[in-house]
Amino acid sequence: MLGYNADDILGELKVVLTNPEALYSSFRGDRYTADLKRLTQNERVIYDLKSILLDVERGDVADAKDRLETVTATLQHAELSTGIAFDDLTDWRAIADRPIDWVFDNVLPRRACGCITGPGAVGKSMAALTLTISAITGKTLFPAFTPSRPMRVIALFGEDPVEQVAKRLLAIGAVHEDKVLRDELDSAIVDRLGLLCAQAEPLTQLRNNVVVPTAFYQRLSHEARTADLIIIDPLSKFHGLPSENDNALVSQFMNLLQGWANVNGAAVLFCHHFSKEAVRDRTSHLQVAPRGASAFIDESRWVATLQTFDDKTAASFNIDLEEAWRYVQLRVPKQNYSEHRFSRKPKPP
After folding, report:
1. Same domain, yes or no, for 11 and 115?
2. Predicted confidence (pLDDT) per residue in 13-64, tens digit
3. How far apart (Å, rounded) are the C-alpha atoms in residues 42 and 198?
4. Is the domain of 18 the same as that of 116?
5. Strand extents, DSSP E, 130-219
6. Number of folded domains in the chain?
7. Cα 81 → chain centroid
8. CA separation for the pair 271, 290 (Å, rounded)
9. Distance, CA of 66 to CA of 136 (rounded, Å)
10. Which end of the chain is flanked by fewer CB atoms within 10 Å, N or C?
């Protein structure tokens, strides 16, 4: 049980939340160390505590202490001896009525992982950058992707230097200048975009056949506390796994990405390549198209595929075959939290 008050742990809170491993190496038998270890394994509690920590950093210490007292009082009644805090279903009907918190309305929810997948050079990075501009400005650039509000985005682009990414941002801004004014785009990029280009480091490493976070993952976790959307392009530059085909390892890795989403309340959107078989057979509409283990897709709540038009698709849109290479098709074969609008059929009269 937590038999101490908020003042007892407020001083340790920042260390615990910015580097949970410090619990195991720096604490020296403090009377609440065991409880804090268990708390850091409860994602919901971490999310509440990180929100409180933000209040502290803003100078709202008194309010943070009051909120922390509430959290600790609630935990007095939790089954901390097992490290499991079941969801409180006392008012489950009200819980069911809560609206989904979206990053892009009725498309990509917060606290979830999503994937954009396709062959090489099909435009995954440009799609990710367009969604980035849409999110930081709060403007709809792709018709089906309406941001819930202007948001903070962290974008990791592992393949291209910052100069190339800046050129792409400039090109996207020019295409959508009727929707996003120049000054508006400039201020949004400076104020709400955290960009890391061509500095790919592994987010995880394998230790005794267990996927564990690296120091890079921990540093990004600290930076991502106030992010609404985290973009990783391409995932292969960052995952750090010895093999993309091992479902057990990929599942552990996806749990760590989901941890970012759960703790920070952000959406994590990563770009991933098609398998050679999918490119050969043009199986873009299938969830099995992405390269490697199925866990990449199984544990994503939203999946989009990008592919160039073949002759049949171009003809269906009355596009000249010589111009078909200019077009790509986006499909959404997996969409867990909203209607599957891309394949919906009208009801019979």
Report:
1. no
2. 554 445 444 433 333 334 334 444 444 445 555 666 666 766 666 666 666 6
3. 34
4. no
5. 153-157, 193-197, 204-207, 210-213
6. 2
7. 31
8. 10
9. 32
10. C
